[in-house]
Inverse folding.
């Protein structure tokens, strides 16, 4: 398959779509996991590698359930199955006391702490039949701090 090219100006060096998407995945402030129909990891970006403590090299090709055997009450595994089989989207939110996945902060300048997070689980369909599952994991700490401040007022 030929690689599509982008070019912002006529004199610039063309950039492949692959290079652009790879850069975006590496620079986003979200955890991005893409699973195939058998729930094997196809994409594992640096954010999720850092917060999970599992390297990209370790995660790629592994079944999701094997990477996170203690995923909260099997809800995530059921939501992944629903995305893959029925095309359904789900959203889950953790709290300070209850994490969906065992994710921690990177501890820069402070001890690591459990990371409050939100997970969106979405079906991704390619063509007419190939279905994948995208997990978008967002840090909710700042939102929780703001909610606590508002609650005190």
């Amino acid at each position: 398959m030929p690689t599509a090219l982008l070019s912002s100006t006529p004199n610039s060096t063309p950039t492949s779509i692959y290079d652009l998407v790879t850069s975006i995945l590496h620079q986003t402030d979200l955890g991005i996991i893409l699973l195939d129909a058998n729930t094997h990891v196809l994409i594992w970006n640096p954010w999720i590698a850092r917060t999970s403590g599992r390297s990209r090299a370790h995660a790629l090709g592994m079944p999701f359930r094997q990477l996170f055997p203690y995923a909260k009450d099997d809800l995530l595994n059921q939501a992944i199955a629903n995305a893959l089989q029925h095309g359904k989207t789900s959203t889950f939110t953790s709290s300070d006391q209850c994490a969906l996945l065992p994710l921690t902060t990177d501890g820069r300048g402070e001890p690591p702490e459990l990371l409050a997070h939100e997970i969106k689980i979405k079906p991704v369909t390619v063509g007419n039949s190939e279905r994948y599952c995208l997990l978008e994991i967002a840090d909710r700490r700042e939102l929780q701090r703001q909610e606590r401040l508002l609650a005190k007022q």
